[in-house]
Amino acid sequence: MAIRVLLVDDQPLLRTGFRMILEAEGDLAVVGEAGDGLQAIDQVRALQPDVVLMDIRMPRMDGVEATRQITGPGRDGPAKVLVLTTFDLDEYVVEALRAGASGFLLKDAPAHELVQAIRVVAAGEAMLAPSITRRLLDKYADHLPSGEEPLPDALDTLTEREVEVLKLVARGLSNAEIAADLFVSETTVKTHVGHVLTKLGLRDRVQAAVYAYESGLVRPGAQ
């Protein structure tokens, strides 16, 4: 079954370029396009895509609010949102991740990275490139806890190993990398990640990473 993709961007030329790239792949199918957030919501309802490639800055409704309405609390549809941002990292990307996006990608990323990102997100994983994540969190370091505040009570529900896993997820490590770091199997890591998400009421790894930083468990630049 091909991965169904909806393209959302207010620039028709960009949508055309993305369509050409994606339709050259046998396992990807572009099922529709939208020029703003309102159209995106309607198209998601009508077309039921697997992945929405979502721009941030658009007229009528931006990508953050559209993402919130597509994947926010109470939504159980299949659509995952992959946010597109500029090289300078749009100030709204953090809000899009909080709203339920499964990751973000630079607009000038090579074609093979775009294709791979869509496959990763469609498979239920998160697109958290460590280098981009660190830059993003460093940019907002002043708005994050200083480390002096007490940690949220919810973290007490995690085991010591689950806290370790959460910290590594926040650094952008994949399951395979976490498994190698902790000398356990990938299956064990998946189980730990699942427990973390369930206990903290989080949707996916992206929200887990944001939570780890916002709670003060992890600080930008920390290892």
Question: Could you explain how this protein is built, in words?
Answer:
The radius of gyration is 17 Å and the shape is globular. It is of the alpha/beta class and 223 residues long. The N and C termini lie far apart (40 Å). The chain has ten helices and five strands. The protein has two domains: 3-139, 3-Layer(aba) Sandwich (Rossmann fold); 155-215, Arc Repressor Mutant, subunit A, CATH 1.10.10.
Task: Provide keyphrases for this structure.
Rossmann fold; Arc Repressor Mutant, subunit A; 5 strands; single chain
What's the number of extended β-strand segments?
Answer: 5
The level-1 CATH class of the largest domain: Alpha Beta
CATH fold-type name of the largest domain? Rossmann fold
Strands of the widest sheet, in order across it, are: 2-1-3-4-5
Individual helix count:
10
Tally of discrete structural domains = 2
CATH superfamily of the largest domain: Response regulator
Briefly summarize what is shown:
Keywords: DNA-binding, Phosphoprotein, Transcription, Transcription regulation. The chain has helices at 12-23, 37-47, 63-71, 93-99, 111-122, 130-139, 160-170, 175-182, 186-200, 205-214; strands at residues 3-8, 28-34, 51-55, 80-85, 104-106.
